[in-house]
Design brief:
The chain has 8 helices and 11 strands. The protein has 2 domains: 120 residues, Response regulator (Rossmann fold, 3-Layer(aba) Sandwich); 93 residues, Arc Repressor Mutant, subunit A (Orthogonal Bundle), CATH 1.10.10. It starts with a strand and ends in a 6-residue tail after the last strand. The chain is an alpha/beta fold and 228 residues long.
Length: 228
């Protein structure tokens, strides 16, 4: 059974979510503050993390950033928060969250989004290494290298990159890319743009040649081009 870490300081919400997850067959660990949650997330092998934004000790944004940037952990993160503005959602995704759930929520939606995260993180992938210019993706080991340097991507970033590589050098539309990555649970309108921005920051910005291209009015493509 998947092992889930729940980091939530509201005891009523934690009890509701925890009882539902355990009744659904998940193994569950729990932290009521950010520092304990961060320690568990770094030291234990979880399949997914359900993370509240507002926490004592260390908030969810800081936990996400430290997981991605310092601990280099790619564990899928579902962030929960009462903040529902576009800026809040984009900030959460930029910090490293893979999905965003606004409180109050129905437990069925949390369940569906968690299942989708787990499917994307553990889906069946081709075993052969895919290459474009100096970029290499090994779907079997989930390792990505460019110019011999290993890149640390989030699970959504890795899935986006694999779908773009499969389509390369063709253009893939925004809608088609969202459907391949998120399936029947579409993200908020800026989620794809935010994840692609983070992917480009890791995969393209440190290197001389740009491989990820926005094709205005059409979509995106991964290709070795002289110019956009």
């Amino acid at each position: 059974m998947p092992m889930i870490l729940l980091i939530e300081d509201n005891h009523d919400i934690a009890a509701m979510v925890g009882d539902h997850l355990e009744a659904s067959g998940y193994d569950l660990d729990y932290a009521a503050d950010g520092i304990t949650g961060m320690h568990l997330a770094v030291t234990q092998p979880f399949d997914a993390i359900i993370l509240d934004l507002m926490l004592p000790g260390m908030d969810g944004m800081e936990i996400c950033r430290k997981l991605r940037n310092e601990a280099a952990k790619s564990t899928p993160v579902l962030m929960m928060t009462a903040r529902d503005t576009l800026e809040d959602k984009v900030a959460g995704l930029d910090a490293g969250a893979d999905d965003y759930l606004v409180k109050p929520f129905e437990i069925e939606e949390l369940d569906a989004r968690l299942r989708a995260l787990l499917r994307r993180a553990g889906g069946e992938l081709a075993s052969e290494v895919m290459r474009l210019a100096d970029l290499e993706i090994n779907p079997g080991t989930l390792e990505v290298h460019r110019s011999g340097k290993r890149l640390n991507l989030t699970p959504i970033g890795l899935k986006l990159l694999i779908e773009l590589m499969k389509a390369s050098p063709r253009v893939i539309s925004k809608r088609a890319l969202e459907r391949k990555v998120w399936g029947d649970i579409p993200p908020d309108s800026d989620a794809l743009r935010s994840h692609l921005y983070n992917l480009r920051k890791v995969m393209d910005k440190p290197f001389e040649n740009q491989l990820l291209h926005n094709v205005p009015g059409m979509g995106y493509r991964l290709a070795e081009l002289d110019e956009d």
